[in-house]
Amino acid sequence: MASILKVDAMQGVTTAGSISVTGEGNSTTTNLQQGLAKAWVSLNGTGTIAVRGSNNVTSLSDGGTGDVTINFTNAMSDANYASVGNCDTNSSYSVQFVSMFNNPTGNTDAAPTTTAFRLGTRESGGSGRDEDYVIVATHGDLA
To answer: Which among 139, 65, 135 is positioned nearest to 105, based on CA atoms?
Structure first.
């Protein structure tokens, strides 16, 4: 018979903010909080940019063609988090990609802060390009 566990909150016994979970193979453990995405967003990057769905993202700032700043609802503990993303191909260009912490041409670093980071979407020739679907997830520690 299968078990169902229903809870409103989980708290570690020895450390309230830390819960360890046994990993695959039962040989290691991982920290549950460390493994969760602290923010994610699916956005429309064309025309008037807009959030399609998100968690811990309060707003977007449009910096021009292929240039978006993602603003967090709750700050990260420091600017050393990891963000990964992808975008679709809404045109005949063979390659589109997301460049984290850069302007759309990738020539200027835009250092992340605890409350926001900048990303660029561009085509294979390096020019900034607005994309219909951009998805991004951020991992790190919340403040």
So the answer is: 65
pLDDT tens readout for residues 79-133: 999 999 888 765 665 556 777 776 665 556 678 999 999 988 887 777 788 888 9
pTM: 0.80
Torsion of CA 10, 11, 17, 22, to 10 degrees: -80
d(CA 31, CA 110): 30
